[in-house]
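Aim 2 progress update. The chain analyzed this quarter is reproduced below.
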Amino acid sequence: MVDMDIGVLLPTGTAQWGPADDPRELVAFGRYAERSGFTSLFVNDSLISPRIEALTMLAALAPVTETVTLGTAALMPFLRRPIQAAQALASIDLLSGGRLTVTVGAGFPGRFGRPLYTLSELPWERRFARLDETVALWRALWGGADTFHGEILRFDDIPPTTRPPRAGGPPIWLGAATPAALARTGRQYDGWLPYPPDPADYASGLRNVHKAATEAGRETEDITPALFVSVWIDNDIESGRRALDDYARATYGMPLEELERIQAVVTGSADQVLEHLGRYVAAGARHIVARLGALDLHSQHDQLERIADLIPAVQAAADHASTSESS
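Predicted structure tokens:
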């Protein structure tokens, strides 16, 4: 069988909670997802919408889960001091027994990204170079370095830092899909977590990632092809779209028709959702991170159970895609 992971994004943002919801239920939600067959639990990161902070959530999950990957989708390193972030990430990896995966990003353009840089007192310019240097710094610290000299980040006489349980530290994925990001993923990162609205764009992006990896002398199998996708299973597509429109407006302040132009969104009956996810699997995705388009924890649980029922079929689709590729 082909390795095919199905994960879920935990609803850490208050926009996804109902008036009576208790955020402490998120820990139980994560444990239930693990028992239901999901192989990863992801959290996202922001300063401009109220939520449980990403690394705090993962630290709470680390000792109470057993096998699931704990991930960020995506962590924005510029929100934190780089050495302090390396310590926090290594600590979570230790507490989880080496189950952390760190997806990073430089933030959205425009109104979703620039305010974060202002709050972090960092320049918007050269944000991608800063991101790559921060990741390089983390890897150096996790390898025992006591100095780091980049173009932006420079440190001397770094005291001993927390070391993760795995050599080289946790895998680091990139959450971006511009042509430059595809090349950087192939050259430098351990995985790719985009959200293209069209599976054909996913396929072409993955080909470019693999091309850059090959040119850099890396094995393409060493880069995890993942997908971030918003999902809502309903009786039909139209009722699903109404639910996701409510979600898009509550979460982003925009209608669904605008959101789905920039992010992968899948809705409809279970069979329709499976068919759409299967197109991404056929395009090469091997780790799906599903964001549940619900606005209270009861509905989140319901959607979690519906998607859990699809896990064997998604695995079968990955097996079929792999067989087709090799024949």
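The CA atoms of residues 26 and 129 lie 34 Å apart. The first helix runs from residue 25 to 35. These observations will guide the mutagenesis experiments scheduled for the next reporting period.
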